[in-house]
């Protein structure tokens, strides 16, 4: 069975974008692949976080993964920071990565511009991501197009390591799903819906109340021609709502365009608001049960045990290959 791996950074509340773009995809693939899913808490630290808020998010994310349909029997689920071999591997990989490669990463260039005093961790982020991927010999990494470059770097680092020290790693490939859509910010649909966005009106959190979800969708920015037509370049607001409705209901964009033809934005927004809020409310019900139960700790204990065993094996092999062993 081929392996796939995904992690989500707990830099803010888990969003509808994370659900549609990452978790829903993992759910649809969990029968076919040996799946690894983690909370990327070490990655979150590359940008300053409030420790209390970050801590509180960790279990919430795990409970949300499962409430969204991730089956703990078919996935290895864990917190990245509980596997100490991953950052240890990352250091060894840093010594196989060129400074130029890391500093050329688009995310590093963009995020380092946003923060005047950015951390070294922001530069080494893709190397830690390479360790996340390479320790368990993941074959595929389902990512949005923005993360493709990082998976390619992981592959380059693995290839260089294998060439220099002998076969050690499986070469991973990014898996860009054709159906995986990018959910846009509701207030500014030219940009991605992001956890760390400052204006909460554009972002649907999976923890939002029914009323908030409906309000945000009803107030989403749209153009003024009142036609329900998919055209991401000229009508990003309405196209984004079509993407959301299509992902949630499984109906095609064409079907939705047809059904709402001539009905105007108000009616369509009401429909999207109602299906989205109902869908999220069902997920929240399951989420609450999980958060109040004892199951989560057991899932995390089992996940981290498997993850650490694999990572220790890979770390020891790397050290042996590199000559840093007694
Ligand atoms: N808006 C989105 N639409 C579709 N997919 C999305 N993903 C994130 N936002 C959307 C997918 O979720 C996975 C995990 O992403 P992440 O949280 O680790 O990093 P990110 O993509 O940088 O997410 P954010 O919310 O934008 O975080 P911040 O604000 O901290 O930078 C990935 O598969 C991603 O494609």
Question: Could you give a short description of this structure?
Answer:
The protein is built from 13 helices and five strands.
Provide structural commentary.
This protein has 326 residues and is mainly α. The strands form two sheets. A three-stranded parallel sheet has the order 1-2-3. It has a two-stranded parallel sheet with strand order 4-5. Helix 3 (51-67) packs across helix 12 (264-292). The radius of gyration is 21 Å and the shape is globular. Helix 1 links the parallel strand 1 and strand 2 (34-39). It has 13 helices and five strands. The chain folds into two domains: 3-181 and 294-322, 3-Layer(aba) Sandwich (Rossmann fold); 200-287, Tyrosyl-Transfer RNA Synthetase (Orthogonal Bundle), CATH 1.10.240. The protein has helices at residues 16-29, 41-44, 51-67, 85-94, 99-103, 106-114, 120-134, 148-165, 210-218, 236-249, 253-259, 264-292, 295-322; strands at residues 3-8, 34-39, 75-79, 140-142, 173-175. Bound molecules: adenosine-5'-tetraphosphate. Adenosine-5'-tetraphosphate is lined by residues 8-9, 11, 15, 17-18, 20-22, 40, 143-144, 147, 182-183, 192-196. Adenosine-5'-tetraphosphate binds next to helix 1.
């Amino acid at each position: 069975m081929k392996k796939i791996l995904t992690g989500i950074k707990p830099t803010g509340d888990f969003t509808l974008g994370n659900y549609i773009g990452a978790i829903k995809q993992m759910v649809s693939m969990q029968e076919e692949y040996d799946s690894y899913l983690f909370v990327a808490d070490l990655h979150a630290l590359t940008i300053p976080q409030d420790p209390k808020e970050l801590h509180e998010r960790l279990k919430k994310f795990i409970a949300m993964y499962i409430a969204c349909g991730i089956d703990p029997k078919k996935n290895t689920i864990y917190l990245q920071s509980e596997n100490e071999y991953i950052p240890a591997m990352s250091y060894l990989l840093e010594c196989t990565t060129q400074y130029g490669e890391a500093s050329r990463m688009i995310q590093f260039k963009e995020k380092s511009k946003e923060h005047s005093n950015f951390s070294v961790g922001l530069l080494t982020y893709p190397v830690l991501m390479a360790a996340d991927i390479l320790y368990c010999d993941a074959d595929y990494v389902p990512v949005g197009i923005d993360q493709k470059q990082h998976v390619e770097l992981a592959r380059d680092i693995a290839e260089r390591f294998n060439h220099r020290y002998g076969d050690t790693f499986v070469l991973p490939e990014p898996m860009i799903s054709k159906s995986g859509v990018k959910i846009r910010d509701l207030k500014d649909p030219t940009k991605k819906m992001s956890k760390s966005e400052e204006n909460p009106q554009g972002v649907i959190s999976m923890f939002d109340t029914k009323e908030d979800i409906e309000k945000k969708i009803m107030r989403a920015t749209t153009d003024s021609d009142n036609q329900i037509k998919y055209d991401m370049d000229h009508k990003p607001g309405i196209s984004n709502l079509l993407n959301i409705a299509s992902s949630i209901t499984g109906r095609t964009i064409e079907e939705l365009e047809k059904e709402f033809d001539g009905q105007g934005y108000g009616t369509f927004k009401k429909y999207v608001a109602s299906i989205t809020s109902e869908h999220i409310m069902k997920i929240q019900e399951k989420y609450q049960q999980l958060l109040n139960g004892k199951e989560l700790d057991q899932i995390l204990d089992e996940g981290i045990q498997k993850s650490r065993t694999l990572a220790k094996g890979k770390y020891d092999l790397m050290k042996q290959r590199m000559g840093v062993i007694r």
